[in-house]
Amino acid sequence: MPTTLKDVALRAGVSIKTVSNVIHGTIHVADEKRERVEAAIKELNYQPNLSARHLRKGRVGVLGLVVPELTNPYFAEVSNTIIAAAACQSYTVLVDTTGGLRENERVVINGWRQQLLDGVILNALALEQEDLHPERVETPIVLLGERFLDVPYDHIIIDNVAAAYEATRHLLSLGRRRIAAIGLRSDLLRQTETSEMRLHGYLSALQEAGIAHDEALIPTTVTPYTRQSGYIAMRQLLENAVSLDAVFCFNDLMALGALRALHEAGLYAPQDVSIVGFDNIEEGCYALPSLTTIAPDKQQIGETAVRFLLGRIEGTRTEPPERVHVPFTLIKRESTMGRATF
Amino acid sequence: MPTTLKDVALRAGVSIKTVSNVIHGTIHVADEKRERVEAAIKELNYQPNLSARHLRKGRVGVLGLVVPELTNPYFAEVSNTIIAAAACQSYTVLVDTTGGLRENERVVINGWRQQLLDGVILNALALEQEDLHPERVETPIVLLGERFLDVPYDHIIIDNVAAAYEATRHLLSLGRRRIAAIGLRSDLLRQTETSEMRLHGYLSALQEAGIAHDEALIPTTVTPYTRQSGYIAMRQLLENAVSLDAVFCFNDLMALGALRALHEAGLYAPQDVSIVGFDNIEEGCYALPSLTTIAPDKQQIGETAVRFLLGRIEGTRTEPPERVHVPFTLIKRESTMGRATF
C-alpha cells in the first residue's frame, strides 16, 4: 500500500497539515519541523501524489494559464499569484503562451486540451467576437485583461480608463503641461483595447485641464509594450524636437526604455521630464530613478481568478458570469517626485 | 470532414508552410499574406488541430518545462527560447514552477504526469542523488542548470567556474583590487552548486592575481538571487564600512539591487564601484548604468534542450546521455566601462 500523508505525519510527529505545507511549499514551516518531515518522507520513500484527491472526483488537478508572454514581467508576476493561489487548493498550474496572436487565443478559448485540464485562465489580447464558440467548450474559463467580449465567462479587469486618467492627473498636478503618451501602435487598425482605454483616460484628463491634445506628443511604435519600443518612441520624440515635460507610458517596460533614451540624451527624470508607467513590476522599484506607476492589485487578480475558476470546476459558483473590477493604486516614486533623502 | 491546413492554403493562395507560420506565429509573415490566411481561416472556420500529427504517433504533442520561478527573468527568457524551439516542431510547452523546492523537484524527476506529457525539461536546484528513481521514469527528461547528479539524462550547462573567473578577471583588469562577491546564502549548509561554482571561479581569479581573499567582502543573504537580496547585501557592506572598489554579483537581479543601494548611498558605478552581474537579462541592457554581465547563450540552451528531448521522444537520439556545455560571453557595459558617448 502506498505511503500516505498521514504515515509521514505520524513518523514526523507533526500534523498532516504541516506535511502538506512542506510538500506544497506554500507556507513557511519552521526549520526544525521541516527537517523532521523531510527525514520522514525520505525514510518512508513517500511519493507525493497531489492528484489523488482530484482523481477521485474525476478531475486531473491541473489548471491551464495562458498569457501573451512570460518575458513581460507583468504576466510573470500575475502568473505567480495564480500559481500560489492554486497551490493552496492543491491545484497545479501549467502555463502556456500565445504571443498575443489571435489564432493561438482562438484555439485556447474554444476548448483547448479539455481532457488534460480542469479549467483555463486566459489573458487574451486579440480575440474577436466571431472567434468564440462557447457551445464547444466543456471546461470552465476565466478571462483576464482588456479584451471585452460577449461570452459566458467570468472576467477580471481593472478600470484602465480611470487608471490612465489618474496617472495623467498626477502629472498635471505637478504642473506638467506637455505630456507625451507612449503605447500606440503605428498600425492604427490594430490597437488593442488596452491601448485605446489608456489613451482615452489620458485624453480625458488633458481635456478636463483645458489642454488641447497635440498629435506630436503621441508617437506610435510597431510593437509596443517592450523596453525597446519605449526607447524608440522616446528617441523619436527627441529627434523631432517635440517640446515635452512629462511622459505617460502605457506600461512600465516602455517607461524604463524611455528613461534610458532620455538619459542618453542628457535629460533626467523628473527634473527635465517626469515619467509615469503602468503595471508596477518589481523592476520599477529598483530602477534609477524608481518608477511612478499604476499598480493593479495583482494579488487580488490572481486570487479572484483562481477562486472563480475553482468555484466553476467544483460546482460551488453558480452565479451568472460576472465582470469584476479589481482595484488599482497610483504609486508615486522618484520618476515624478524626485529623489527622497535616504 | 474537417477543414485542413491544405484547404486554408488553397483558399488563401499561399503555401501550406505559410499557413503554418501564421498559425504557429513562429516566423514573421508579410501583412498582406497574413491577412489572406486569416480571411481564409475565418471563411472556412478552420480549427487548428496542432496535435493531430502527434496523436497518430501515440504522442500528445506537449512538453513540460519546469523551472524554479518565472519572476526571475533569466528563467522567463530561457523558457521563451524553449517555447519557440518547440513550436517550430509543432510541440506545445507547458510551464510549471517548483519554487526551487526539493520536494517539488523530486516529484518532477520521478515521472511527473507521464501520461500528459511527451517529455520534460527540468531546471533543478535542490535535488539530491537519493531522490532519483530513474527506473520509474518512462518519459524522456533533459536537465538544465548546475545540479550535478548521476542520472541517465542529457544535461545542458555552462561552465560556471570559468564564467565567474572571467567576470572577476575583468574587474581585476580594470585595476580593481577590493572585489566583493554577492550571492552566498547565510545558511552555509544549503548553498546551491551555482553559488559554490561562482564563488570558486571568483576565488581562483583573486588567487591567481595574488590577492588574499577577505571574508568581509563576501556577505551572505537569506534568500539570494533576487533584487532585494542584492540590495540588502550591498547595504550590509556599506554599513560595515567595508572598503571595496568592485562587486561581482552571482546574478543580474542582485547586481541591479546592489546598484540601487550604492546609488542611495551616493556612490556610483563604475566611478566609485564597478559591478558585474550574471545572466544577461534584458533589464540589464536598459538599466542606468547598463550592466556588464556574463551572457550564457540562452538561444543555444533552449534549442539544444528541445533538440535532445525531441530526439529521445522520437527515437532519433540514441547516444548515451551527455553533459553538454553551452558557451557564454562576457558583455562589457557601462557598469564597468563607464558611459559611452552617445
From TrEMBL, chains A, B:
GO MF terms here are: DNA-binding transcription factor activity; transcription cis-regulatory region binding
Instruction: Give the HTH lacI-type domain ranges.
Output: 3-57
- Provide the alphabetized UniProt keywords: DNA-binding, Transcription, Transcription regulation
Transmembrane segments annotated in the record for this chain: none
Name recorded for this polypeptide: LacI family transcriptional regulator
Recorded source organism is: Ktedonospora formicarum
